[in-house]
Design brief:
This protein is mainly beta. The chain has two domains: about 90 residues, no CATH class; about 130 residues, no CATH class. The chain is built from one helix and 24 strands. β5 and β6 form a beta hairpin. It is elongated, with a radius of gyration of 23 Å.
């Protein structure tokens, strides 16, 4: 058992180590005046980016740099703002890390890119582009926005989106949509699973596609959809009693189905090459 003096020595060493780590961080703050529909671009090799709304015509950036081996190149040209993490010689994933916390007008157009992420956008109404490799992507509480997401294998979640235009492309990342509705919702993943939980709106086009991943679409019994589901080599399940429709393809028992529910206000297309598809009724 450690003596009291030994415990004190260890505590001091840990405190000094923590202070040294914190001392290596560099804090930067930037403020910009903008007009309506400003465009903000943030490119970050390592580290998270979070963008939220702020009142007034301003952009506020709080950045934490991992070390002196990374700089921020920032510029404003009219209504366009650019922030780029500039890695210096010898920088790596730790020393080159920058954490961005950005506040923008809700109607601003935002582009954010990070290899490792995570990427977070909340409460915006403009055009939003999020790009990453392994970055976790989270978009929530956005209305009347155009959201585009491109990732390699980072998981993507979009939630609480009304009247939105959504385009998501991923190689192997899982994609989840919760309470998302709008005139156009297109999702495509090569090997990742796709999950939708919502009501499919009342006048939209929804396309959920994956090559080898599974698709699960959950909707209420009162959903109003014209649906087609097809998996070339996978199993397909349907919990709804659909009214039959004519199709350009021959339906295969257990491999495809189609039909309408309610007034068939929204078009729903569920496609997979070899994954399972399940149109599930919310209990």
């Amino acid at each position: 058992m450690l003596r009291s003096s030994e415990r004190t020595t260890i505590l001091v060493v840990l405190c000094l180590a923590g202070s040294a780590f914190a001392a290596g961080e560099i804090h930067k703050d930037f403020h910009f005046k903008v007009h309506r529909r400003a465009t903000i671009s943030i490119i970050n090799q390592y580290g998270p980016i979070s963008v939220k709304p702020i009142s007034g015509h301003q952009v506020v950036v709080n950045a934490i740099l991992g070390s002196e081996k990374v700089e921020i190149d920032q510029s404003q040209r009219g209504n366009r703002i650019s922030l780029v993490s500039h890695l210096l010689p010898g920088a790596d994933g730790d020393s080159g890390r920058v954490e961005y916390q950005v506040q923008v007008p809700a109607n601003a157009n935002v582009t954010m890119s990070s290899t490792t992420g995570p990427l977070h956008a909340e409460g915006l109404r403009g055009d939003i582009l999020l790009e990453g490799n392994t970055a976790v992507v989270d978009v929530r509480n956005v209305n009347e926005a155009h959201v585009r997401v491109k990732t390699l294998d980072g998981p993507v979640t979009v939630s609480n989106m009304i009247d939105g235009h959504v385009e998501i492309t991923s190689v192997s990342g899982a994609i989840a949509l919760k309470d998302v509705s709008g005139p156009l919702v297109h999702v495509n993943s090569t090997t990742g699973n796709v999950a939708y939980d919502g009501n499919f709106g009342d006048a939209g086009e929804y396309s959920l596609t994956t090559h080898t991943g599974d698709i699960e679409a959950i909707a209420p019994r009162y959903a109003s959809i014209d649906v087609v589901a097809n998996s070339l080599h996978g199993k397909v399940d349907n919990d709804f009693l659909l009214d039959p429709v004519h199709n350009s393809f021959v339906e295969r028992v257990g491999g495809s189905f189609s039909g309408t529910l309610g007034k068939a206000a929204s078009s729903v297309r569920l496609y997979s090459f070899s994954g399972k598809i399940h149109l599930k009724k919310r209990q």
